DNA sequence: TTTATTAGTTACACACGTGTTACTTTGGTG
DNA sequence: CACCAAAGTAACACGTGTGTAACTAATAAA
């Protein structure tokens, strides 16, 4: 019963994704989102009681996808192939990574939000485990000095993913270059 | 003549710096700034006609300092010492780096702003030159493969500076670790 | 001590963001 | 066809941010 919807849940997440990438968390407004969906602001409030709950649900959704994507890596591969596989997957998640970084800045306007922020934070750790496993493997197989701090290596890889492609290299060579930088730094081999 | 000022230009830049680090560009308001200076909002408008001009002047000021600091590097040092020197100086500029990244998001509310944004952008290139010189030196002295793209190496070094120190390492060892990562990546030597 | 000048404050008008309420539209069901 | 329920809209109250104008306070010079 009732009349037809003007936008689906999928439309909503799509528009939210675009808008948050375009304007950032602070610039994200319900008016802009409504405009993107060709709908009045109040229509969105029929589905979500406030902006914060909408955004946190969006992030949980994206996080779920990210965790799945990274956990699907084939661990039987060699260290180097596994690294390459991981990098390619992390590249797919590039803007998600920054979006998810905004999660902590969402205001705790209701207990529901506080709760879901903790869920997100837990999933964030889950996201790191495939990367951690890779580092462990690298240490075992002699690619990485076991004395090295895992947090540091993790941070290093995450930061390296975000290098801007100012040179305009094709994606394949760009990823290959980044892999080389991660493995051997700027030094001549 | 006239009465005593309640805040100096130095106070203003200090408060602006603190506030923009605390709240980010979007969260920066004249009310918060005024509160930090223990002054009414209107008092600041006696010095600056609007928020944008204040922020762009602040950034030009900071940029000038950054360019000077990086240009003071001793180029007679060895490649590795010069890199270390550079890294230490870039660490001093850590929050400045992110602040200056916000420059492009300042709205062009007046032609003065558009003009100063271009000045900032030009100084941004100046900031890169010491780094570029270092890379060139590294290529000449055989530390770096000359075929490698300078933009990529530059981006790599800039990103690496921003690795979060989650492990809580002391600054000295942290910088040393980062230098090692830049030079040789995660690989065992 | 009077006065000019500069610094600062209070109060206003305006714009825009949020969330709610009362109303309208639209489609299936008895 | 009547009417009910879901979906949507318009309009309101409220908060907060910006920039301005009229007023007040303090200090140095005449």
Short description:
Two copies of one chain form a homodimer. Chain A has 189 residues and is mostly helical. The first copy, chain A, has two domains: 47 residues, Orthogonal Bundle (Arc Repressor Mutant, subunit A); 133 residues, Tetracycline Repressor, domain 2.
Task: Describe the model.
- The structure is a homodimer of 189-residue chains.
- Helix content of chain A is 69%, strand content 0%.
- The first copy, chain A, has 189 residues and is an all-alpha fold.
- The first copy, chain A, has two domains: 1-47, Homeodomain-like (Arc Repressor Mutant, subunit A, Orthogonal Bundle); 52-184, Orthogonal Bundle (Tetracycline Repressor, domain 2).
- Chain A is elongated and about 65 Å long.
- The N and C termini of chain A lie far apart (69 Å).
- The interface between A and B is large, with 37 and 37 residues.
- The structure holds a DNA duplex (30 and 30 nucleotides).
- In N-to-C order, the SSE pattern of chain A is HHHHHHHHH
Query: Helices and strands of chain A: which structural class?
Result: mainly alpha
* Low-pLDDT residue spans of chain A: none
Mean pLDDT of chain A: 95
CA-CA gap between termini of chain A: 69 Å
Gyration radius of chain A (Cα, Å) is: 20 Å
Key attributes of the depicted protein:
Tetracycline Repressor, domain 2; DNA-binding; 2 domains; 189 residues; Arc Repressor Mutant, subunit A; mainly alpha; homodimer
Topology:
Two copies of one chain form a homodimer.
Chain A lengths: L8 H19 L2 H7 L4 H5 L5 H21 L7 H14 L1 H8 L9 H30 L9 H12 L9 H14 L5
Chain A binds a DNA duplex (30 and 30 nucleotides) through helix 3.
Keywords (chains A, B): DNA-binding, Transcription, Transcription regulation
GO molecular function (chains A, B): DNA-binding transcription factor activity; transcription cis-regulatory region binding
Protein name (chains A, B): TetR family transcriptional regulator
